[in-house]
Specification:
Layout lengths: L33 H6 L14 E7 L5 E7 L1 H4 L4 E6 L33 E2 L5 E7 L2 H10 L1 E6 L6 H4 L4 E2 L9 E4 L2 H7 L2 E9 L11 E7 L2 E6 L4 H11 L7 E4 L15 H13 L3 E4 L2 H7 L6 E9 L5 E13 L20 E11 L12 H19 L3 H7 L11 E2 L4 H12 L11 E3 L2 E13 L7 E6 L4 E4 L9 H13 L6 E4 L16 H25 L14 E4 L2 E4 L5 E3 H8 L3 E6 L4 H21 E2 L1 E12 L6 E11 L6 H20 L31 E5 L22 H13 L15
Parallel strand pairs: 1-13, 11-12, 15-16, 17-27, 21-22, 29-30
Antiparallel strand pairs: 1-5, 2-4, 2-6, 3-5, 7-16, 8-16, 9-14, 10-11, 10-13, 14-15, 18-19, 19-28, 20-21, 20-26, 23-24, 24-25, 28-29
Helix pairs in contact: 9-17, 12-13, 13-14, 16-17
The protein binds dioxothiomolybdenum(VI) ion.
Dioxothiomolybdenum(VI) ion binds next to loops.
Length: 773
């Protein structure tokens, strides 16, 4: 973790800065959960002790499509300690997965449409066909290996490459755009004096969080407690209540720590449901830890893609045509279109634009959201093509981008709420030393290494979700923030404590944030890089309400110096409310003590059923209206230096700098870590990650870290992060979200640097050494 800096080119605008009190927002405060996680005190979902716990393991189908004709469980049942072998022949009935509905957003968390163990049908190679429950994990795993299943196979479509020609155009929906056009891009391309027309491919990717998916489930009558590392406790709770036909109020989902998720823990996958089923069947608390293979077989990954990017430009490098089309895959039993062309609506001011996403449906597990779905692979194609065009024009690739930097959203003329890509490139180029690069490929060397420098734009839309929050201020001056959000390691609780501390004018240490439990007010999912801004919006409102209530208490007393004061003339600082810089005021402690109340509460959001639906509808309509007006996003400039061995094709990423516009930086340390983590993921995507699917039967052939290669520390250079730290005036506290933007552009920056080093263009990920020889 070297060279950590977040340059601060401006001050945060809001809430108002006090002359005396130290603000928490902006400080690089250590994560509040850091100590527990690094000392082993943090309990993950497979670590909650129950005295009589049983262990479960899955059996996976070995065909892509067909029907089960027989299951022999005799050998498995004979293993000492086996309590149950549950198959479709003896499993109790469950409710089928719900259809997606905008009236209940928890339906979006349905991983697949399969009613596991309630059917003899097999829909993908790896679908769970049995769950074994035993006294020990070892017995469960051994017995699972002894379950013998026979099938009647049906014809299956599993080969993405072979199916590509059958892709159908994705239709536009209110929340997703399948295509868009402006002018006649094909004609403009044909007429352009300079052009590129390129095809790119990216392979499937799978989730590899440090903590594999695991569930601990315990029933008490119709009440259910589930410990689950999840990105959405509210959706998990509702899904489970529905599938097991019990009241949602009786289901509690607890998720204090999540050992990484990256999209993989957004949906409710088979392991979770079957652990709850196993606990139901055996009457015991049951724990299931998916093996690494289990994650690949039962948790969706990223779709493969083929993409066409064609660009046409005039002699000045002004884009006249931008075409970006894609083919991606969904499962026949679920998954969604990946927004591969999303960034191409926003990045370049081309006169003519044509975007179209196309889909093929395979007999495969549903794809799912994964590490900046859409833009991470979409920017690989777009940003490599821009670099190729720059070489055709003999223009610096940054200069080409700046000549096409739009003032309004290119596809539809909407306004940008905030956009500082120019500033990001200027800052990055200076700090990285871009001017020291000689453009000619192969022109830079360090001993026997070929040295290359590459650049690419990062882009990720910013999102907001509804969040219910309560804040309690106690007479001892402490504050408790409660919201059922998620801590996957990004520092969410720390950020909210900083925000609450400043909003109320109390020290950071006075605030405690409770999260990760469905008994708390319903929080947003951790996804789309939108959790922090979403919670912050409600938290700020709750803090305003709280201050109002405290002031009302104060005004009741003739002794209070705040008598007759209005909140908008007061400043929250030094643990209380004060008029002006040196004016009269008093501490919260004094106000509450005099009034004789132990605490004051404020709440945002209703938890009644009607209140919740009404709140969701209100929130969604507001959001859609807002997005009709504004385009909102985080963006950045990625700078990469590589060294390539000319004889072996070995690529080492030797230097990295990212300059980002992520709005207000709440915490330079956690924001820096988030952005660094994304770049590490992007390096994996560029150089090593690839799920290999057997085209004959749809079986994933490398389901584990031994053969699916993610970067290790030795693969990662020092990563220098700079943030512009300018608030987005239309977002709560100026936040635009930091989780995913840094994954985008990374693979293109590497591919472009490799071209600069070697003169070779690789348009098929991952860029393994065989492609460079
Ligand atoms: Mo994410 S892929 O929004 O967890």
């Amino acid at each position: 973790m070297t060279r950590t800096q977040a340059s601060r080119t401006s001050q945060v605008q809001s809430p108002p800065r006090s002359a005396t009190a130290e603000r928490s927002v902006g400080r690089p405060i250590d994560r509040v959960d850091g100590k527990a996680k690094t000392t082993g005190a943090a309990r993950f979902s497979a670590e909650f002790p129950y005295p009589d716990i049983a262990h479960a393991a899955l059996v996976y189908a070995t065909i892509a499509r067909g029907r089960i004709t027989g299951i022999d469980t005799a050998d498995a049942s004979a293993i000492t300690g086996v309590l149950a072998v549950i198959t479709h022949l003896n499993a109790p009935a469950m409710k089928p997965p719900p259809a997606m509905s905008v009236m209940d957003l928890s339906t979006l968390a349905t991983g697949t449409s399969v009613n596991y163990l309630n059917t003899d049908e097999v829909h993908w190679n790896g679908q769970p066909v049995a769950v074994v429950v035993a006294e020990t994990l070892d017995a469960a795993l051994r017995a699972a290996a002894l379950v013998r299943v026979t099938y009647r196979e049906l014809p299956a479509t599993v080969d993405f490459t072979g199916e590509e020609k059958n892709a159908v155009p994705q239709k536009n929906s209110p929340i997703q755009s399948g295509g868009a056009r402006k002018g006649d891009a094909e004609a403009a391309l044909a007429a352009a004096p300079f052009s590129v027309d390129l095809r790119f491919t990216t392979p499937p990717h799978h989730h590899n969080a440090i903590e594999p998916h695991s569930t601990t489930a315990a029933w008490d009558g119709d009440r259910l407690t589930v410990h689950e590392g999840t990105q959405n406790i509210a959706w998990t709770r509702k899904q489970l209540a529905r599938r097991f036909d019990v009241p949602v109020e009786g289901v509690r989902v607890i998720s204090p720590y999540v050992g990484g998720a990256f999209g993989g823990k957004s949906m409710v996958w088979a392991g979770t449901i079957l652990t709850v089923l196993a606990a139901r069947v055996t009457g015991r608390p049951v724990r299931m830890m998916l093996t690494r293979e289990g994650v690949y077989r039962t948790v969706g990954g990223r779709t493969p893609s083929t993409q066409r990017v064609a660009l046409g430009a005039d002699a000045d490098g002004k884009l006249t045509a931008l075409i970006h089309t894609s083919v991606t895959q969904t499962g026949r039993v679920g998954g969604g279109p990946e927004q591969v062309t999303s960034q191409s609506r926003h990045l370049y001011d081309a006169a003519n634009i044509l975007l179209q996403q196309n889909l093929v449906e395979l007999d495969a597990l549903s794809n799912t959201v994964m590490r900046a779905p859409g833009e991470s692979i979409g920017t690989f194609a777009l940003e490599t093509a821009v670099d190729e065009l720059a070489y055709k024009l003999d223009l610096d690739p940054i200069e080409l981008r700046m000549r096409n930097e739009p003032s309004r959203n290119p596809i539809d003329g909407k306004r940008f709420a905030h956009r500082m890509l120019r500033e990001a490139y200027a800052l990055g180029a200076e700090k990285f030393g871009w001017s020291g690069r000689t453009p000619q490929p192969g022109s830079m060397r360090d001993g026997r290494w070929l040295v290359g420098m590459g650049v690419a734009s990062a882009y990720h839309p910013s999102w907001q979700f509804s969040a219910n929050v309560t804040v309690r201020l106690a007479v001892d001056g402490t504050v408790v923030v409660r919201c059922g959000f998620h801590e996957m390691g990004m520092g969410g609780a720390t950020a909210q404590a900083q925000i609450a501390a400043d909003a109320l004018g109390v020290p950071f240490d006075a605030v405690r944030v409770e999260y990760g439990d469905s008994t708390l007010p319903t929080g947003p999912g951790a996804g789309g890089s939108g959790q922090t801004a979403s919670v912050a919006a409600s938290l700020l409102t709750a803090c305003e309400k709280l201050k109002r209530s405290v002031l009302a208490l104060a005004r009741r007393s003739s002794e209070s110096p705040l008598r007759g004061r209005r909140l908008n003339g007061l400043e929250a600082r030094d643990g209380g409310l004060w008029a002006g810089g040196t004016g009269p005021g008093e501490t919260y402690v004094a106000i509450l003590a005099r009034a004789g109340v132990p605490s004051v509460d404020a709440r945002v959001g209703s938890e009644t059923r009607v209140g919740e639906v009404a709140g969701q509808v209100r929130f969604m309509s507001k959001l859609l209206l807002d997005r009709r007006r504004w385009v909102k996003a985080a963006c950045g400039a990625q700078f990469c230096e590589v060294r390539v061995d000319p004889d072996t094709g070995e690529v080492r990423v030797s230097r990295w700098l990212g300059a980002f516009d992520v709005g207000t930086v709440i915490n330079a340390k956690t924001v820096g870590s988030q952005l660094r983590g994304g770049i590490v993921m992007g390096i994996g995507m560029a150089l090593s990650e690839e799920t290999l699917v057997d085209p004959r039967n749809g079986r994933i052939m490398n389901p584990g870290l031994a053969e699916y290669h993610v970067p290790v520390h030795a693969d990662i250079p020092p990563i220098d992060i700079h943030c512009l730290d300018e608030p987005d005036p239309t977002m709560p506290l100026g936040l635009v979200g930091v989780g995913e933007v840094s994954i985008t552009g990374t693979a293109a920056a590497i591919a472009n640097a490799i071209h600069h080093a070697t003169g070779k263009r690789v348009r098929d990920l991952p860029i393994t050494l065989d492609k460079l020889l």
